[in-house]
Write a structure and sequence with these properties.
This protein is of the alpha/beta class. It is built from 6 helices and 7 strands, in the order ββαβαββββαααα.
Length: about 200
C-alpha cells in the first residue's frame, strides 16, 4: 500500500492490489470519466478488499454481503475550510489539504472491491484494469444522481454511451442484463442496484 495519488479526482487509494492496475492510471481515467459523466466536485476512489466492501455494505445499506462498487454521495456537497482544517475522505485515514481557492465542493466517495472486480474481469473476458474503470464509471454515475433502481433504464443508457465514448467493454448494467438474457432470467435493467 503506497501513498495516495492526487488528481482532478483527488485521491485514488489502492489498499488491495489488482494485477495491471496502478493508482496513477486509474486516477487519470477517473478524471476523464468524471468530466464525461458531468460530476462536479471532488471524488475519492478506494480500491480495497471484499471484506471491507462487505463491512461498508452492511453498515450503510443493511446488506451483509460483499459487492463490487459502492458510492457515497457527499451530504451537503460542501467542504468548509478554515485555518489548518482539512477534508477527510469518507473512508480514508489520510487528511487532504484544502484547495488553494478555498470553498471546495465534494461530490463523494467510491469504494471498489479488488477481488470482485478481478473475478468479474476473468468471467467477462477483459482486463482487471478495464473492470476497475467500469466500476469507477458506474460509481461516478451514482454520484451524479443516477439510480438504476428507479430510473427506468436511463442510467443504463447513459453508462453504455459513456462506456463506448471512454473505450470500455460492456457496462455493468448492460452485462448483468445480458447474463440474465442468456440464463433465461427476466430482470428490468432499471431495477438492478450494485452501489
Amino acid at each position: 500500500m503506497g501513498p495516495p495519488v492526487r488528481f482532478g479526482v483527488r485521491l485514488v487509494i489502492v489498499h488491495s492490489k489488482v494485477r495491471g492496475v496502478s493508482a496513477r492510471a486509474l486516477g487519470r481515467f477517473a478524471a476523464r470519466a468524471q468530466r464525461a459523466a458531468g460530476v462536479r466536485g471532488e471524488v475519492d476512489v478506494l480500491i480495497t478488499s471484499s471484506a471491507e466492501l462487505r463491512r461498508l455494505n452492511r453498515r450503510f445499506r443493511g446488506k451483509d454481503k460483499a459487492t463490487d462498487v459502492l458510492s457515497f454521495p457527499s451530504r451537503d456537497g460542501k467542504i468548509h475550510h478554515g485555518g489548518a482544517e482539512t477534508r477527510r475522505s469518507f473512508f480514508s485515514k489520510f487528511s487532504v489539504p484544502p484547495c488553494l481557492r478555498g470553498g471546495c465542493c465534494a461530490a463523494g466517495d467510491i469504494a471498489i472491491s479488488a477481488e470482485v472486480g478481478a473475478r468479474n474481469a476473468r468471467r467477462l473476458g477483459h482486463s482487471p484494469a478495464d473492470e476497475m474503470k467500469i466500476l469507477i464509471l458506474h460509481g461516478l454515475l451514482h454520484l451524479a444522481g443516477c439510480d438504476h433502481e428507479t430510473d427506468g433504464g436511463e442510467m443504463a443508457r447513459k453508462e453504455a454511451r459513456l462506456r463506448r465514448a471512454l473505450g470500455l467493454p460492456a457496462a455493468l448494467i448492460e452485462r448483468t442484463s445480458e447474463v440474465d438474457r442468456r440464463n433465461g432470467t427476466r430482470r428490468n435493467a432499471g431495477k438492478r442496484r450494485r452501489s
